[in-house]
Structure formats: C-alpha cells, structure tokens
Write a structure and sequence with these properties.
Length: 287
C-alpha cells in the first residue's frame, strides 16, 4: 500500500501532469494507493506519525517540497519507507540521490536571521540567493528560466566583502559573488557546483566565488555546468568542512534548497546528527 503525497504547486502547477501519470500507472498495475495533496495536510508530522509503518510513502515534488517535508518532520523518527519522484523545476537533490544511491543522507542546517532551516541539498548567500529569489518569483519555473535569471543576476549583482570561518579558520574575500555550502552535487537544475560532494559523508562542501574580472564572469559560471570551475583556484575557493559561518555585512538574499530568504547578513551552516533515508522511486523495483 502506498500513500502518494503530491504538491500541486510544484513547478508552477505543471506537476499535475506528472501526478496523473503516476496515478494512471498505479491503476494500470493494480497497486493499492491513496493520493493526498500536501496542501490539505495541516500537520504533516502528525499525519506521518499516524500512518501505519508498513505503508510506503511516495513524495512527489522538487527540492522545495523535500525541504518543506524535512523541516516539518525533522523531530519525527520515520519508520516508513519514503520514496522520491521528481515533479519540481530543479530536482537537484534527487539528481544526486540517483547518481550516488546512498542508503541514508546527512541533513544540514542553516542559521539565518536568528532562525534555523534544515536542508538536504545545500544553502548559501549572495548571487545564488538572488537567483533563487528571481526563479521563485517567476511565473514559469524551468532549467532554462534558472539559466536566464543567472545571466540577469550576473549583470546586476555587485560583489561584496565577505568574512568566512571554515571550521574556525578565518578567510576574507574582498569581492564575493557567492558563498555556497552543499551536501549534494548539483544546484540550479544540473549545475555541478560541488562535484565532489557525497550525500552519505559527514562533511560539507564549501564553494566561494570571488574577485572574477567581468570579462571572465560568464565563462566561469558556465563552467559550473560541467564542474570545471574548481580548476580556477584564483577565483574559486573550495574546502571540505564541518562548520561554516559567513558574513557579508550588508543585506543579502540567502537560500536553502532553493527557498530564498531576504535581509540576511550572515549564515551559519553545519551538519546535524540526523540522517534521512530517502530512496529513488522505481515502480518496477518498489512495488
């Protein structure tokens, strides 16, 4: 028996087509299921808690849906098998999950504006926060839309002075475009920002892009799609870490799994001691 949890607003409501396809396939194979909209569940933690442990859960949505699910169920010891199928615009966490297939995944935590937010894929501040905000405000969400908004942000964003403590060691950057701390390999619908990141490793991948001459900005950002940007060590700082604290001293937009937050001057990112056990859904293997 499956419970299919779907987000009808994922990918600007286009997820309805994917949800219908999944439902039709379940019906064709005579697999028992119950379809439930996440928007109609007032307390997802209580809902999961009352769900019998032998019932499998299929979560349909993108990075934002997964992020909301994790933040609303973090304190719950989930015993149900939970599967993921992409219906969002980015799907970067699932992209890493499909590639690496870890049995469990460490959960990260970002502190910003005296608030905490858990994440599965990554968190950051600077131009990636601005891009995430632009994409979230767009009527249509897609990988192409992310690319276009990346170009627009590159043309308008002014790099900032930044101080970053990486496991207690201070690093300063005069002209910083972004500070990104990832658990997964991808951002922005397939950009390999942290190509060495492993979901099952107790570590964070830190990327700081800084002091790029304007003539090279577009070239280096395009190289992110292929994971080649880390070779430009003069402009791209990369470290493995357990704890990161970054300050830009002016109001920025931060992001956590693509969810954007305005008015952020500082972020503090660390690993939690908890793991998730998401699995990639395959109807042939999981039913």
């Amino acid at each position: 028996m499956f419970i299919i949890l779907h987000n009808p607003l994922s990918k600007s409501k286009k997820s309805k087509r994917t949800t219908k396809h999944v439902v039709d396939e379940f019906k064709r194979r005579n697999i028992p299921f119950r379809l439930k909209s996440l928007l109609k569940i007032r307390d997802i933690e209580d809902y999961i808690k009352k769900t019998p442990k032998d019932i499998k859960i299929l979560l349909l949505g993108g990075d934002g849906t997964i992020n909301t699910f994790i933040n609303n169920t973090y304190n719950l010891a989930i015993e149900n098998d939970i599967y993921l199928k992409a219906t969002g615009s980015g799907n970067d966490f699932l992209r890493s999950l499909k590639k690496q297939r870890p049995a469990s995944q460490f959960i990260g935590q970002m502190r910003y504006n005296q608030k905490n937010r858990f994440f599965m894929n990554g968190a950051g501040m600077g131009i990636d926060g601005e891009i995430s905000h632009r994409v979230n405000q767009a009527i249509r969400k897609s990988r192409f839309n992310y690319f276009i908004n990346t170009i627009k942000a590159l043309l308008t964003f002014k790099p900032k002075y930044c101080e970053v403590f990486v496991d207690g060691e201070l690093h300063t950057f005069k002209k910083t475009y972004l500070v990104n701390v990832n658990r997964g390999e991808f951002i922005g619908g397939g950009m390999r920002l942290t190509p060495e990141a492993k979901l099952d490793k107790a570590e964070l991948d830190v990327i700081i892009v800084h002091r790029i001459p304007k003539v090279f900005i577009l070239f280096i950002f395009l190289s992110v799609y292929f994971g080649l940007h880390t070779k430009f060590r003069r402009y791209v700082f990369h470290r493995k870490a357990k704890h990161v604290k970054a300050s830009m001293f002016s109001r920025q937009i931060s992001q956590c799994d693509g969810e954007s937050f305005k008015g952020t001057r500082e972020i503090e990112v660390s690993l939690t001691d908890k793991r998730a056990k998401f699995q990639v859904f395959d109807i042939e293997k999981n039913t």
